[in-house]
Amino acid sequence: MSSTTRDAHLKETLDWALSRMSGAGYPVQSKVSLVVDPALKFMGYAKQVDSAHLIVIAGWALDSEMLGGLVLHELAHIYHIERGSPTHTGGVAERTIEDVVRREGLSEREARSLYDAFSHLQNILVDDIVFSCMKERDHRLAARFFMEWVSDRPTGDPVVDATLVVRNAFAIASLKKRRVLDTLDEMRVRNDRLLSVLGDGWRKDFEDLERFLEQAKPEWGEKELGEALKEYLSKVLGLMSRRKGLEDLK
Predict the structure, then answer these.
(1) CA within 20 to 30 Å of 208's CA: 148, 164, 167, 191, which one?
(2) Cβ partners under 8 Å of residue 156, min gap 6
(3) For 220, phi and psi rounded to 5 degrees?
(4) To which H or E segment does residue 54 belong?
């Protein structure tokens, strides 16, 4: 793809996504630009530069069917930033996670697992906007995308396995919340394989996490978010502290 063709493709994608956002009642007011990072390993991310925003896209993602969905997702984050949503202002979430890390004496990798869990909570709220901007065909693409998130094999490391269980809960809750049934049965089968090895206690915790994420509300204020986040992180910590059945994996 030549640079001229690439730039035209990016502009068309951004214009399409901004139009979808505005048409669904979520106009983005900031200046937004798309740029390509050929070395980026994952699909993309957004960052703020002064009052403008950059959406950085991996070179390999330019031909992906999910490019439009990625841009919508990052625009939805920008929309929340513009409106000062508690999930995106950093204050209450950062303080809550830091308090838990300090109180529990967590290692760096354990703390990273909590930040990953918060990212899933943030994303499931953001995707309320994304799904409202999508057509039925886009929902089917999203279902296949979330299918790839579901793990079916534990590692024997409680921190890693906690991260996998939370990610599975996020993927399944994302489709349940929007009543997108494509791939949902297959996702549950894969998740059941994971939980059948980890044990019954993990299964109940998974169900609690899935329910929590499915019922998460974008209109939470700072106090509500702080309370919800404490409950959520407590569930994740419970997973990381589990050892039952792990000796069978070694």
Answers:
(1) 148
(2) 246, 249, 250
(3) -55, 135
(4) strand 52-58
Low-confidence ranges of the chain (pLDDT < 70): 1, 243-250
Rounded CA separation 114/91 (Å): 16
Strands 52-58 and 32-37: parallel
User: Is the Cβ–Cβ distance between 150 and 187 less than 8 Å?
Assistant: yes
Which strand (E) or helix (H) includes residue 189?
Answer: helix 184-198
CA distance linking residue 172 with residue 187, whole number of Å: 7
CA–CA separation, 73 and 144 (whole Å): 16
CB of 147 closer than 8 Å to CB of 186: yes
| Alpha-carbon 158 to chain mean position | 21
- CA gap 233, 224 in Å, rounded: 14
Q: Are 167 and 148 in contact (CB under 8 A)?
A: no
CA 58 → CA 77, 100, 145, distances in Å? Answer: 18, 34, 16
Instruction: Give the pLDDT confidence score for residue 249 in this predicted structure.
Output: 34
